[in-house]
Amino acid sequence: MKQAGVFPNDVTFIGALTACNHSGLVKEGWELFHCMKDFEIEPCNEHYSCVVDLLGRAVYLGQACAFIMKIPIEPGGIMYNSNLYACSCLWDCVAHVRFLMQEKGLNKDLGYSVIEINGKLQAFHLGDKSHPLAKEIFNELQRLEGGWVCPT
């Protein structure tokens, strides 16, 4: 982008941080976050959330907790991915991150998925049964899960 004379904005950085997050590029994501100031972009909740997720997925839990403690803005709806720590069976870190969340008055957003069916987007929140086709959806999920065996 620099070579083309295109300057990133806050949304560009969210996309780039998310890409680093999902690709396991911790060093690159960390560097991206810190170069935001070179473009006079103040990190917002989404940027901080991406970095916490980046560190958590890489199991850099100490760094994630230290980063959370240094966030200088009011957290608003920022989400800390304590579930990543739980998946790693790192229960002490789960407890610590949840304590930090509670201390800062944060709530974890419910997970959801979005899929396209016949050209229409359908959103499904975790455990939500208010969708007009909820019964059919859950029946299909049960059918699909019936023969599935977790690979070991």
TrEMBL record:
Membrane-spanning intervals of the chain: none
Give the GO terms filed under biological process for this record: RNA modification
Keyword Repeat listed? The answer is: yes
Q: Which InterPro entries match?
A: PPR_At4g14850-like_plant (IPR046960), PPR_rpt (IPR002885), TPR-like_helical_dom_sf (IPR011990)
Report each PPR repeat as a residue range.
Answer: 9-43
| Keywords, in A-Z order | Repeat
Is Disulfide bond one of the keywords UniProt gives this record?
no
Which is an annotated GO molecular function term of this record? RNA binding
Q: Which PANTHER family match?
A: PENTATRICOPEPTIDE REPEAT-CONTAINING PROTEIN
Q: What is this protein called?
A: Pentatricopeptide repeat-containing protein
Organism encoding this protein = Glycine soja
Taxonomic path: Eukaryota, Viridiplantae, Streptophyta, Embryophyta, Tracheophyta
